[in-house]
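Pair request: fold both.
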Amino acid sequence: MSLAAILLPMFLQVALTFALLFWMIILRLRAIRKGDVHPEVAASRQADWPPYVQQVSNAFHNAMEMPTLFYVVVLLGFMTKTLDTTVYVLMWMFTLSRIGHTAIHVTSNRLAHRTPMFLLGAVALALMWVLIAGRILVFQTN
């Protein structure tokens, strides 16, 4: 498998995070320009953003949480040559679940729909860590 194919799920997760970041910035600037939030208040962490801004902001902050563990496990697996088809499938499960989770988060934001996507990603990520850590600890003890 090529390096690009191995890292594609990670690159998509990074692209999703940047898309949310820039969308959040645009919405925040729009809210400030419309007078929904005063610039001085926006500069503090206490800004009371309109719901449409807060929803995207929450999705962005969420994209900074679990995915950090994803980036680490992918790079760790790559560096230690412990990635295989199983981990690759789990990488795609995680990335696609995060895309689905984000799509729900920024649209209907229904917990009944969002939670299964979150759990799918969490389980995929936990399994990646178990597999990679297990292979390193059991098979690569030098």
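--- second member of the pair ---
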Amino acid sequence: MNKKLIQKRRMMKYFIEATQQIIEKESFDSVTVRKVSNLAGFNSATIYNYFKNLNELIYFSCIKYLEDYSKDLIICLKDSKNIFEYYMNIWKCFCYHSYKNPKIYFHLFFTNHTLCKGSIKEYFEIFCDGIDEPSRKLLPMLLSENIYDRNLSSLRNFVENKIINEKNLNDLNEMIIFIYQSMLYNILNNSVDYSIDMATEKTLKYINQAILSYKL
């Protein structure tokens, strides 16, 4: 890695970590350029040398949470005996991490980020040493910013193995995302009193029922 990229990564990390602190201790709405720059120990104008705007900085700060998910995902998948278990284990890992940090994941996947398109890919290109080699094989899925596309890509294995009819694929995909989004939203707004494990278990149960309803 050349010196320029090392410097860029170091500076971005200062601002990302400062933003994460504000999000965790306060809220997304509390993040301002002045607060971040003061916490990071730099002039406010310096932020714009590394990020297009505050929204991109906030988005990058959220992406960092995908590192822990990507590391755990390879562990969750290793004992999968078939494509069904493989698919359900993806969701088990994703639910666990997202329900642990609901505001982060809701912001990443259910907020409009038109101006931040490509940020997940850029993040992993700069900070790719944050994940191990086995996890890198899953990068194509991790790099997708559209949760509908991410899930649709995984569901295609069911079509290829003649478990689900392709004509039902989009409906099933939409149903599964609605199940997950609803649970995530309820956890985020404290509308349910579920532990992370219970919320994950319930989500997997509903996803399983959705798949069975379309099974050939």
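Observation on the second member. The chain has two domains: 3-62, 65-112+146-214.
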